Amino acid sequence: MGAWARRAGVALFVLAMLLFVIGPLAWLSLRAFAQTWEYPRLLPREWTLHWWETVLEDAQLGGAIRLSFVFAPVTVLVSSVICLPAAYAFARHDFPGRRVMLLSLFATNAFPKMGLFITIAGLFYSLKIMGTFVGVVVVHVLGTLVVMTWIPAAAFAAVPRSLEEAARDAGAGPIRTFFSVTFPIAAPGILVAMIMAFLASFDEAQGTFLVGTPTYITMPTEMYTLVLNYPEQAAAVFSIMLSVPSVVLMLLVRKHVMGGRLAEGFQLR
Amino acid sequence: MTAVAQRVRTRNRTRLRGFLLALPPVLVIAFFIGLPVIAAIAYTFGYSGGINSVVAALAQKQHLVDGAAPTFDAYREVLGDSSFRTDLLVTVIVTIVTVVLVMVLSWAIALYARFSRGVLAKLVTALAVVPMFIPVVIASYAILTFYSTDGFTRTLFHLLGWEDSPALAYKMTGVTVGQVWTHLPFGVLLISSGLSSVPDTLIDAARDAGASMSRAVRAVMIPMAALPTIIVATFTGIGVLGSFTVPYLIGPNAPNMLGVSMAQYYQSFNQAQQAVVMAVVVFVLAAGIGYFYVRANAKSARGSGRL
Amino acid sequence: MSLRIEAVSKVLGGRTIVDSLDLEVETGQLASLLGPSGCGKTTTLRMIGGFLRPDAGQVLIDGQDVTAIAPERRPTAMVFQNYALWPHMTVFKNIAFGLKLRRMPRDEIRSRVEDVLRTVNLLHHIDSHPGQISGGEQQRVALARALVLEPKVLLLDEPLSNLDAKLRERVRDDIREIQQRVGITTVLVTHDQDEALSISDKVAVMTGGRIDQYDPPSTIYRAPRTRFVADFVGTMNLLRATVHDDHVATGDVKIPVRGAALGVEGEWDVGVRPEDVRVSPSEGAPAQVARVIPRGHYTELVLMLGEQRLRAFVGPGSGDDLPEGATAHIEISRALLYREGLLHQA
């Protein structure tokens, strides 16, 4: 009796989770293929692929998609150059101010983005990067610094020193040691961070809108307009297209994310 | 040169190298975030010079300084505004409720996954992590349609015979649902990883000493997973406080969370200074939460919390 | 009879780990489960502690069947291999945890914890965290945490495996001394034969989920009942040889056996302890000295009898001065005969 009640409870919980998490996504996906769908019907009355044509043929939407795929890799690249050496330094060197510097990254999360973007405009104007490609990249990079430093730092710190010492012992110099031992072992953590950064750039809407319009309109920025001005079905189609790269990338690193690579990064040492 | 002096020199050199390597992200933040934030705070006190001049030239209804002394008029105006106070209250409530719900759900799922090796446990964990895969804009839009007047929940209740069930969309309940949805993966991942690092033998030892399973969890699991728990609470809290997309898409026009009010004041009303004042208020709240995170980390680094 | 296990079996992951095992430990005695990794010894211990439920059979403590009782309600206390001290609690809190669960008054908890810490000589670390004390001290805290509950049966899971060699001997003696002083029935699991032989009243040598032999240490050593035990415990020369009344023959070499006649003939596995090999300049079978290994108070010789290798432990003046490459002459003073893995009982 007790065991049955518990099993039923668990099953109910799983079902509720399924509805809570997947329900909205499934509901939205159905909409992308709906011709007519009136309340209170559980499924659309007529189906169509018409909305996919509409979206794919819309030049503006296509441009937004292309732009997103340009900004995301550029952001990851710039962020890697800035952050990965720092991550290594945080993991392997002890220097005065180390903790304070590590924590200062965290502070970037504390000030609301909207407030920041209002005054950042002044800075961007004086640097003449308002409304430019560089300006948008800067905004995107800002959103990736924390993950790109913390998670790789934890990954570097988790490489046993003895493995590096063994490489040095075998005659490898410090740079050779880094590239043939340290980096490959830390690679999964770095990959997780890079994909998180890629998605952060892919997801960034507010800053891009304030800094990039009207020249640079990315997919998520377009989404805001779409939600307000287009039929629901077009927004649904666009949503699916916007989710595909995220889902694919996350599936690639799913094992490492679940394996605690992400969690490690947030426990400062 | 003596061997000791040599060693001190090498050590100083590697320390310097570490410092220099770690500098770039910190400099980027200092320049692109630190500087604007300081300027923003100065702006709220009426200083419109420097990088604030562009914003100040366009904004309306500003309270600027006469001489050198700061003015608190902008704060007086915003804090005195009853709709702001409502928004602040709404923001704080949504934040607290979200943090509590995320904690409860994350702990429940993580505990279940920790002690059950079944397929269901794996499924629930995988489910809880799905939102991480989905861009927030999409998620918000999906949740909006799911809980709207012609959404799934109302359709389902209608089919079950409840004709006039409420729609959560455009209400703060809907916003809270959206916040929980988007913040759940982080909570589940961190707490699961915290729990999985507690060895089975520590639980066995507690049971051997006479503790029931639930007592063993309380006495051993909870304190040992304290750090990830605090990390989840602070990051979720800070994330919800400053959030924009979820309340913007799912929430009502007013009252809504401060992230939305800020955008409204800046973009619709062209009152940049008032918007920044709100940002500073949220920042102060977030800094208060951040303090716990820093303290918890420092404590666990100092104590013997790690095996 | 304090602890009794009857026909207990356990299958894990489709593999039979413990196979219809019987064991009895008398009150106040220390029994060791000794065997190679995977022999089922830890599984047996965990079934006694209640962490695993046997698929068949019974566990009885003081005649009472505890097979279905959860670990928290069983009168057993375990010292875990890696000590399993709770890192977030002080030494005091670690030990007091079980007493608090028993709703003991605070003063009594304090005095009991102090008493048990005095027993293990660690009173000065009462407020330390586990991370702040050495491995040997953590070991003793774990022991104290188990003892303070006054269990009927104390379970020790590889208690010395995480200590360095020097410390291991000392803690081993400490455990034995405390166990005897408290007079508690104890089951210890180990893969280290030295540890088992030197600490136990009885040793159960396990292989493949069964006990091959359960006897006092001296019997295990002098008369290993199976070929496996002979090979596993101590150093043993095992020769495939033809046995005659007064000698054994391997290849062309005939090794004389002194003392009592073997009483059988034919093909046997012959087990000879190195100390039962006598080396002399002229009497017995000739053998090449391949290596001379000084062991301190005795010398180990590795001898070659044709293709057969034989180890001998010799004392001062009885062959320890032979150089490598020399020819020694050997006799056997005692031999154990095995056929189909079982000892021939004369």
From TrEMBL, chain A:
Subcellular location field? Cell inner membrane; Cell membrane
Q: Where are the transmembrane segments?
A: 69-90, 102-127, 133-157, 178-200, 233-253
Q: Which CDD domains match?
A: TM_PBP2 (cd06261)
What are the alphabetically sorted keywords of the record?
Answer: Cell inner membrane, Cell membrane, Membrane, Transmembrane, Transmembrane helix, Transport
Main localization of the protein described in the UniProt heading:
membrane
The superkingdom of the source organism is Bacteria
Q: Is Nucleotide-binding there in the keyword field?
A: no
Membrane topology per the entry is: Multi-pass membrane protein
Do the record's keywords include Protein transport? no
| One Gene Ontology CC term in the entry | plasma membrane
The family database entries (InterPro entries) matched by this protein are listed as:
MetI-like, MetI-like_sf
Q: Which family does it belong to?
A: Belongs to the binding-protein-dependent transport system permease family.
Task: List, alphabetically, the PANTHER family matched.
Answer: INNER MEMBRANE ABC TRANSPORTER PERMEASE PROTEIN YDCV
What is the official name of this protein in its record? ABC transporter permease subunit
UniProtKB/TrEMBL annotation, chain B:
Determine if Iron is one of this entry's keywords: no
The principal location of this protein is: membrane
Subcellular location per the Swiss-Prot or TrEMBL entry: Cell membrane
CDD domains attached here?
TM_PBP2
Membrane topology term: Multi-pass membrane protein
Mind telling me which InterPro entries this protein's record contains? Answer: MetI-like, MetI-like_sf
Q: Which GO terms describe its biological process?
A: transmembrane transport
**Cell membrane listed as a keyword:** yes
Tell me a GO cellular component: plasma membrane
- Organism's domain of life? Bacteria
Residue stretches spanning the membrane:
20-45, 88-112, 124-147, 180-203, 224-250, 275-294
Q: Which UniProt keywords apply?
A: Cell membrane, Membrane, Transmembrane, Transmembrane helix, Transport
The family note in this entry says:
Belongs to the binding-protein-dependent transport system permease family.
According to UniProt, the name of this protein is: ABC transporter permease subunit
TrEMBL record, chain C:
Q: What class of enzyme is it?
A: translocase
State a GO cellular component annotated for this protein: ATP-binding cassette (ABC) transporter complex, substrate-binding subunit-containing
The Swiss-Prot or TrEMBL record annotates one GO molecular function as: ATP binding
EC numbers on record: 7.6.2.9
Which is an annotated Pfam family here? TOBE_2
**What UniProt keywords apply to this chain's record, in alphabetical order?**
ATP-binding, Cell membrane, Membrane, Nucleotide-binding, Translocase, Transport
Positions of the ABC transporter domain: 3-233
Please indicate if the UniProt record lists Transport as a keyword: yes
Q: What is this protein called?
A: ABC-type quaternary amine transporter
User: What organism does this protein naturally occur in?
Assistant: Nonomuraea phyllanthi
Highest classification ranks of the organism: Bacteria, Bacillati, Actinomycetota, Actinomycetes, Streptosporangiales
